[in-house]
């Protein structure tokens, strides 16, 4: 099967902090790190990354637990998949590649990792783009019935092991294809080769377990870390760009810019004509917005 990324991207496996991180690098110029979300891999950026690589050195990774990256144990308190832990992975990757300062764009779970990176390493993250999310803390602290119905998978995946692992493991392909088709709202169709890759990776029982640990961490350590940051008055100091799908849950239920202005010093952004999967559903608009922001 042909993976839909051009030959300009060189694949390498970096082992950082004892965890294998699947990494691709391409292009020239100032560095940009692209982070994916659930239940996908770095390939969510396959339309956008080549355009960014015309002006930037683009680094794509699979987050720990996803794609072809390592899938370590979550630990007794799910600390293996806390966003602080996942952010440290990505910091080590960029340092290994020789980048002490860089921009970050993250979709979905990757945006949450990017948010934590910007808080923990303000001297390294020069700009942050978050795609189709509001901060985890805000989502949980303002949750209502609409949120529970719209984001029910957050609560399902966070259930104690082995309930979600057992149910997802019975038919992982149907779960994955169902999730992405449900959240796509009027944008470009998914590339079948990319979806096949998502399925290949998600079929691994270790990937299913790791992704559940990701959501368990969100309800425990991530929320503790985010509450502590808020109590200290920590805010993202790097310029922040928020992009979201106007037809998705985030666009329909939040004043996205107003929310992010409570968590970051300098916020701009806009809705794009799509649902949740912004880089795949609205690739041209996403690439143009990121190129302008990272210029």
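^ structure tokens above, recovered residues below v
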């Amino acid at each position: 099967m042909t993976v839909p990324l051009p030959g300009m991207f060189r694949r390498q496996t970096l082992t950082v902090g004892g965890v294998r991180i699947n990494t691709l690098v391409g292009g020239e110029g100032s560095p940009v790190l692209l982070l994916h979300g659930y239940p996908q891999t770095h390939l969510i950026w396959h339309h956008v990354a080549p355009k960014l690589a015309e002006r930037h050195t683009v680094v794509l990774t699979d987050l720990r637990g996803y794609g072809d990256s390592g899938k370590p144990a979550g630990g007794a308190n799910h600390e293996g998949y806390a966003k602080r832990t996942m952010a440290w992975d990505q910091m080590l990757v960029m340092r290994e590649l020789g980048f002490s300062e860089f921009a970050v764009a993250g979709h979905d779970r990757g945006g949450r990792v990017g948010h934590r990176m910007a808080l923990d390493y303000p001297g390294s993250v020069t700009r942050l783009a978050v795609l189709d999310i509001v901060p985890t803390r805000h989502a949980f602290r303002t949750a209502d019935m609409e949120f529970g119905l719209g984001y029910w998978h957050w609560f399902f995946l966070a259930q104690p092991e082995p309930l979600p692992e057992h149910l997802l493991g019975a038919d992982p392909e149907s779960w994955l294809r169902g999730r992405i088709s449900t959240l796509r709202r009027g944008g470009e169709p998914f590339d079948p080769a990319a979806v096949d890759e998502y399925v290949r990776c998600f079929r691994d029982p270790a990937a299913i377990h790791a992704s559940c640990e990701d959501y368990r961490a969100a309800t425990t350590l991530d929320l503790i870390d985010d509450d502590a940051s808020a109590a200290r008055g920590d805010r993202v100091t790097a310029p922040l760009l928020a992009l979201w799908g106007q037809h998705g849950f985030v666009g329909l239920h939040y004043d996205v810019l107003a929310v992010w202005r409570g968590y970051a010093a300098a916020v701009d952004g806009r809705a794009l004509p799509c649902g949740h999967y912004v880089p795949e559903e609205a690739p041209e608009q996403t690439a143009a917005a990121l190129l302008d922001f990272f210029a």
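The chain has one domain: 10-294.
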